[in-house]
């Protein structure tokens, strides 16, 4: 059954899909506009994805990087936050359908901003996800924390040396920023935080492998910084395997094809997937109803004003949009969202939609941490690595975290982790470690029952 949307209003209706960098910034930039905004997102929080790896490795808590969206927007009277997963966009009737616990709600719009981001891509091998979770959501990060710490716990109880070795082998697939950060932090967790905490195993002997089908670490940051990151990781004891194509993933390990065609097997209990992205399926829904095209990653090829062909009132921003020269990074989403909000505001004041200035992206650079006290950074033509890059990384991430309380809590967590060896968030619950499997089993049972009836 479809329920009508909430309270109708005479004001210009802006629907924003997503509460990530794109969605939140679009809504906030429209704060003083005479519009009625409905922000629909499938999570109750605004997620700061760049620090997910610190949740997965026990440095900070999920609350520090995921404040509730409705609390952030509490003082913005023209915006209503609605929880629900958008399942359909109808460009002809200008409505959006979203589902919350089996109920479908229909929300009309005058202007639509789609900022539903991207998920993990397994390059057509979605079955890998069961054994190699990605790192896109709080659920992913908490589950990975459960798997990583759970592997050490099981190793402590195991008397079989082969099984112990498998449990103490951690493989991170994908040597981009997330993969580098994860591998570095698992190595530091094993070497530093957990050192001496077990009696039967030596956590410092854990094997951390970072592998990628590409020939370099951090390819977008260039050869010099990639090499610096690689050297630093190797100093931490991380094994780097490049030109290694993953061909299979199962409960007990992964299978890898080398450039000479040989096939290798790595026995490992914990696998992390950080190798590719696939834009929200809402992109295809939009493309199917318009002349918009999508690229191989499912991103919508938008016009220079970030709208889609034939629909100047529908904008796609952030990771869901393909714009030449704009990377799939927070700044791409933030700047795109602010540009669209400005377009809406000026057209409400009478500007001609046919005369829109094209969106232009200002590259503020990119950074990745490798370990404590070490990061790599590229700002324009300037490249630097090491301690100062790390300080710059800390500072910038604090600036972009939403909320004063969150900034303070994160800073305190960093002080205890980076100056001492403690991590305040090493708790794992049965629910975190097993929830995904349980939910998948339940879904499989429901599907079996449907098929049988
Ligand atoms: C682990 C990780 C580390 C990263 N590190 C960095 C970094 O260091 N620096 C950097 O600049 N960038 C980094 N990025 C990239 C950056 O986070 C993204 O580019 C940015 O989040 C894109 O913003 P967005 O608004 O397009 O999408 P997102 O921030 O992903 O937001 C998408 C929103 O849409 C919602 N949504 C999705 N589907 C639906 C649906 N069907 N219905 C309703 N709501 C929906 C989601 O719940 C979410 O609220 C990282 C990304 C990841 C995953």
Automatic annotation (TrEMBL):
Cellular component annotations (GO), alphabetically ordered: plasma membrane
InterPro entries in the record: FAD/NAD-bd_sf, FAD/NAD-binding_dom, NDH-2
One Pfam entry name: Pyr_redox_2
E.C. number(s) listed in UniProt: 1.6.5.9
GO molecular-function terms, A-Z: NADH dehydrogenase (quinone) (non-electrogenic) activity
Top-level taxon of origin: Bacteria
Catalytic activity of the protein: a menaquinone + NADH + H(+) = a menaquinol + NAD(+); a quinone + NADH + H(+) = a quinol + NAD(+)
Localization per record: Cell inner membrane
Domain FAD/NAD(P)-binding: start-end pairs: 13-336
Residue spans crossing the bilayer: 384-404
Keywords for this protein: Cell inner membrane, Cell membrane, FAD, Flavoprotein, Membrane, NAD, Oxidoreductase, Transmembrane, Transmembrane helix
Flavoprotein listed as a keyword: yes
Alphabetized Gene3D superfamilies for the sequence: 3.50.50.100
Cofactor (UniProt): FAD
Entry similarity comment: Belongs to the NADH dehydrogenase family.
Name used for this protein in its record: NADH:ubiquinone reductase (non-electrogenic)
Organism: Mycolicibacterium sphagni
Taxonomic classification: Bacteria, Bacillati, Actinomycetota, Actinomycetes, Mycobacteriales
